[in-house]
Design brief:
The protein is α+β, with helices and mostly antiparallel strands and about 70 residues long. A two-stranded antiparallel ribbon has the order 1-2. Strand 1 and strand 2 form a beta hairpin.
């Protein structure tokens, strides 16, 4: 994965500005989302910067959310 630690927040796309036509095929929707967001691992949501990282043996997103919500 590309190192996103030093990403300039001003250059990141705000996910709230991304709009994908639901009539496209699944593959076309994915391609359009990636085209618009530019980096699906590092983007903005309002004043927050969202950065996703994955670990080979780490907990799944679902497991993490369950621990937070339960």
């Amino acid at each position: 994965m590309k190192d996103n630690v030093n990403m300039d927040a001003a250059s990141l796309v705000d996910i709230r500005d991304v709009s994908v036509d639901k009539n496209l095929t699944r593959e076309e929707r994915i391609a359009e989302f990636v085209r618009q967001i530019k980096n699906p691992y590092c983007f903005k949501c309002g004043r927050f910067t969202v950065r996703a990282q994955f670990s080979e043996n780490g907990a799944s997103l679902e497991d993490c959310l369950k621990r937070i919500l339960i």
